[in-house]
Amino acid sequence: MTERQVVRGRVGGFSPYEDIFGSVQAVVAGDHVHVAGARPLEGETLQGEGDPYEQALASFRVALEALAAYGLTADDVVRTRMYLTHARDVDAVGRAHHELFDAVRPVAAMVVVQGLIDARMLVEVELDAYRPGLASTLEGGQP
Questions:
Q1: Are strands 107-112 and 77-84 parallel, antiparallel or unpaired?
Q2: pLDDT of 1 above 80
Q3: Phi/psi at 106 (nearest 5 deg)?
Q4: pLDDT tens-digit profile of 24-46?
Q5: CA-CA distance, 110 to 75, in Å (whole number)?
Q6: Which of 7, 56, 58, 104 is most deeply buried (CB count within 10 A of its CB)?
Q7: What are the backbone dihedrals phi and psi of residue 92, each rounded to the nearest 5 degrees, phi first?
Q8: pTM (2 decimals)?
């Protein structure tokens, strides 16, 4: 597994694409955390190849792990975005979302796109989280 890095409020080390693109998995902005480009990757290994449900779960696990670096959980998620490469996968990805976020009920968007960075990927997710007072907590020496 790739080592996670927290530098200046940014969490990285989740994807080989971070160094290529000059990006990170998550960024804190005040009391908000934004997670983008969460893919079904464990290191460089694709999880759930051919299975949109498993890829959605794996992608959300990556996103939630990035949130955990700030001490946040699924309960703090206020918005999710799911990018799918096939409309036929809406039910499978929706089922994964329901399992993880039914009790939280964030606003959500599901978008069908022409393709993702790796043709084997069927799903990529983003999420935004909010916790009142997070910024002051982080100023006290946290990420």
A1: parallel
A2: no
A3: -70, 160
A4: 888 998 999 999 989 998 878 99
A5: 20
A6: 56
A7: -65, -45
A8: 0.87
